[in-house]
């Protein structure tokens, strides 16, 4: 595969999300050759993906070419391709045409959404993991209003203007709030036959409360804030069917023209590649130094892994810290030094936004909600965007939307290939 | 179709490009009901579409929802759908489920690219007319470099790094310049195995010179400026075959991994709808008041029409002026006033950009080229963008690219549905 001679230790990193990129950056000055592999050509700022799906931001505002991010790092090459397996005996990763050899392997392949064994729901209830998912959901949402405007019967119109979001974690909460604001504010006066403000937005969570990872008080606030935005929150009932007509919760049938799936994470096939047994969500169990049992030269980080002793939340700060940690560990081991200390997660807090001037933050013993939390949420997300250009543009988009209630990317695209 | 009672004269406008939108806006205060129909939900600023195809701008930066543009105009409704025909006897337009009745009809459906009878070339030589075309070409261009980086043989690599653009009009010239700058500047240092600066960019024109609508002196300058950017300009030979391996010009075969089609316009099916004979490009011949012979209540404008006496160029200013003109004419005729004077095009000049600090402008007897023309071109395009938000964002993108030679939207999307 490579046309260059390689004699230094080979580090292969699969996945250029928060974890994989942090690992690569952490090894920038190390005496190794790094191969960073991803299916996509871009690193994605996933925390804002829901804003692409709801027409607030453009894809390029939250994504950046991976090879551009590591262009200065001469010990790193980037390959765009799909990994199909790992051979720990030969120490190679299987990639498209051929194998890529490693001395050290970092798996940071992330998660995708799972349908609890009902993959047939995927066509009518798409999830949100990459940019194509986001522009696809955007197309469905905006087309629902276009079709309702031309609907021949009130029943059809009502079904088209019902949007159900499944899953009450951060993604579901953020989607529900953003969809409600899209309908009630940005689209409110753009139609003649329908009133988009009458759109029915449902958020369905099988568990007893929203945002289960957060303190209970913030869950209650979130439900109230969504209620004020006109979102119907339904707790404690699992979805039993999804199709083009709507959703079933046991006996109850809800007619809905658009369903968005934000429940059930399912890890990438890393566990299968390694021949280890994953946890219920398919994640790879790892020890305190992020290695799965029986694999001395393989690290698994971010959402792909589950720490046996002390599970960490599936967030960007965890992935980043784990990426930086394995970079340090690999450098230490190459240098023949002592065994490094175990990975310890330094809490960076949990954030979720609900809508205009409403967000929740849980940081150690501090709980914040409402307006201040919302401004902090916005500042943190701008700060963590990948470069200055994106910061300026996202700030412009947000400021504009804040002032005039418009959305910057109300485009229906991909119709021809639907 | 409509659930509202309508008693005022019904004006139906098909197509919300520069012409159709100008017609709708011109009738904002007229005592009529307007139905504006488009296949897309957005008005597109087509002059900058090539920048989306070459990763400089994002789709939402040059497109805006049609219904948002006319939201204040209470006499106008917008329908998103595909018109399949016109019945001039019943005075209806056929749209999806049902007919839409008109008293006055404006056809502003634009052009698409034609393959001179070789529609089988379309799959390997895509053209550039809408946002999906642009993101599709962007995917092909960026994937060519990704595949070249992993290519197993120098021959394959050379073919992948050959990009042929067919057609030497403004779109072809702008694409060729932008592709050359993408390869030689923005991508230059992002790869390890290949040198993107060695990319071969060809611009193929069957006629004797580039930009045939411009003065000859500017055509010569354009060829020289492209040569300086490293574009091989080939004149006087028509393409005789396109496929996945490349292009043939008679006996000569050029291996090319990417082909972009910027030749041969083909008008929309408006001529067929009206039962009139189109010109060679399929455009509808119209008289001095923009009506086709035998149709008193139908106007055809923009690229869809060809003025019999005095053909005008296929540009945005022509379409805009014709849209404004038919709005005035319809209002006059409804008021029962005298016949309006014929349409006269007020020359707004011709502009084309070649690359950084190189553009050409022909305005009446003035010819401009080089740096000044480039700055004027940029200012004019920012000015004509549809609103302040887009102006701010496009200016930010351009300023950034100008300073650091980066491109703001280097995303490969739509892979899953390829």
Strand content of chain A: 15-25%
Low-confidence stretches of chain A: none
Largest two-chain interface: A-B, 55 and 55 residues
Give the distance, in angstroms, between the N- and C-terminal Cα atoms of chain A: 35 Å
What radius of gyration of chain A results from the CA coordinates?
22 Å
How many DSSP helices of chain A? 11
Name the strands of the widest sheet of chain A in spatial order.
Answer: 5-2-1-9-20
Give the proportion of residues in helices of chain A.
25-40%
CATH architecture tag of the domain at 119-263 in chain A: 3-Layer(bba) Sandwich
**Whole-number mean pLDDT of chain A:** 93
CATH class of the domain at 119-263 in chain A: Alpha Beta
Using the coordinates shown, work out and report the CATH topology of the domain at 119-263 in chain A. FAD/NAD(P)-binding domain
Number of strands of chain A: 24
Which structural class do the helices and strands of chain A define? alpha/beta
| Quaternary status | homodimer
What shape does the CA trace of chain A take?
A: globular
Major sheet of chain A: 5 strands, parallel
């Amino acid at each position: 595969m490579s046309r260059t001679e390689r004699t230094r230790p080979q580090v292969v990193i699969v996945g250029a999300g928060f974890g994989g990129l942090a690992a690569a950056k952490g090894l920038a000055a190390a005496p190794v050759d790094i191969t960073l592999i991803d299916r996509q050509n871009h690193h994605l700022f996933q925390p804002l993906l829901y804003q692409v799906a709801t027409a607030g931001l453009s894809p390029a505002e939250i994504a950046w070419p991976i090879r551009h991010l590591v262009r200065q790092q001469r010990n790193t090459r980037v390959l765009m391709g799909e990994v199909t397996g790992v051979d720990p005996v030969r120490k190679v990763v299987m990639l498209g045409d051929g194998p890529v050899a490693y001395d050290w392997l970092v798996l940071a392949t992330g998660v995708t959404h799972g349908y609890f064994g009902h993959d047939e729901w995927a066509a009518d209830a798409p999830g949100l993991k990459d940019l194509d998912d986001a522009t696809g959901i955007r197309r469905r949402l905006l087309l629902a209003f276009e079709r309702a405007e031309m609907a021949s019967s009130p029943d059809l119109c009502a079904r088209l203007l019902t949007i159900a979001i499944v899953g009450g974690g951060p993604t579901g909460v953020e989607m529900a709030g953003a969809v409600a604001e899209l309908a009630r504010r940005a689209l409110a006066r753009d139609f003649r036959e329908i009133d988009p403000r009458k759109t029915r937005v449902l958020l369905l969570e099988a568990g007893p409360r929203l945002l289960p990872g957060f303190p209970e008080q913030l869950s209650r606030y979130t439900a109230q804030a969504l209620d004020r935005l006109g979102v119907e929150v339904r707790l404690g009932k699992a979805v039993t069917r999804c199709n083009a007509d709507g959703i079933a919760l046991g006996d109850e049938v809800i007619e809905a023209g658009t369903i968005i799936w934000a429940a059930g994470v399912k890890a990438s096939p890393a566990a299968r590649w390694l021949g280890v047994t994953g946890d219920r969500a398919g994640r790879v169990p790892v020890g305190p130094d992020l290695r799965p049992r029986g694999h001395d030269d393989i690290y698994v980080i971010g959402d792909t892994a589950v720490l046996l002793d002390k599970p960490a939340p599936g967030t960007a700060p965890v992935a980043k810290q784990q990426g930086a940690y394995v970079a340090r560990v690999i450098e230490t081991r190459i240098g023949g030094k002592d065994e490094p200390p175990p990975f310890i997660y330094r809490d960076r807090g949990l954030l979720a936004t609900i809508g205009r001037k409403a967000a929740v933050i849980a940081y150690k013993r501090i709980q914040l909600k409402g307006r201040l939390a919302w401004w902090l949420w916005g500042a943190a997300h701008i700060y963590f965007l990948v470069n200055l250009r994106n910061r300026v543009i996202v700030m412009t988009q947000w400021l504009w939307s804040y002032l005039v209630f418009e959305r910057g990317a109300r485009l229906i695209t991909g119709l021809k290939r639907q």
